[in-house]
Amino acid sequence: MVNDGVIALIPARSGSKRIANKNIKYLANHPLISYTICSALNSNIFDSVVVSTDSQEIADISKYYGAEIPFLRPAEYATDNSPDFDWLYFTLNKLDELKLNYSYVSILRPTSPFRTHKTILRAWRIFQRSKNCESLRAVEICKQHPYKMWLKKNSTIYPLFKKKILNQPAYNSQFKTLPKIFIQNASLEISKLSVIKKYKSISGKKIIPFFTKNWEGFDINYEEDIALAKKILKSY
């Protein structure tokens, strides 16, 4: 391994609603989660690549592709409303009990099949070069600008943000005149373990951006995303 004390955690609960069994749904000839497992292993920066799941089926498939599953996640940390921090904190505490200690944690979600080992390596190098950051989070330019978003009250709508650009409401302004806003995607996060324990949060406070390129931040959430992913895969 290139670095000691670095763990990749891949969260893969069984109860996905929008796409049944999403994490193990086949994309081309392999289950979706396999792309993330293989990218993590091929990056060669992790001491362990661990899948956090409540499903024995997902665990068995993950082991086949080379991931570790030292224990299953309790059902209480695998519901639709479970905060990410809950399963993460449970996992880290269980690893501590097993005397498996790490300094850095990278969360790699299995719904981003085009986040390759090169993506992970690029992010890790950026994180290493930043001296004062506590965590890194993948982001991309927001194509649906928040200044053009609306809330509904009774029979009318009103802007989410009451901003003005050149003395005009921002929602009436050209996109190019609006400030650049970035949205997080599901491809990856990196954090110091000390930060997670200190703030009881995945990210801490000093967060640096990792700008994904092309399809690296593509996230599968709906059936139509599967169809698009198959088309993208053919071009890779």
**Helix vs. strand class:** alpha/beta
How many strands? Answer: 12
Summed up, the helix count is 6
Strand order of the largest sheet: 4-1-5-11-6-12
Radius of gyration: 19 Å
Which ranges are low-confidence, i.e. pLDDT below 50, for 5 or more consecutive residues? none
Give the H and E element order.
EEEHEHHEHEEEEEEHEH
User: Strand percentage, roughly?
Assistant: 15-25%
Largest sheet: 6 strands, mixed
Q: Roughly what is the average pLDDT, rounded to an integer?
A: 93
End-to-end CA span: 27 Å
As a percent range, the share of helical residues equals: 25-40%
In short:
Helix content is 29%, strand content 23%. The chain has 236 residues and is of the alpha/beta class. It has a six-stranded mixed beta sheet, with helices on both faces. Strands 2-3 form a two-stranded antiparallel sheet. The chain has a two-stranded antiparallel sheet with strand order 7-8.
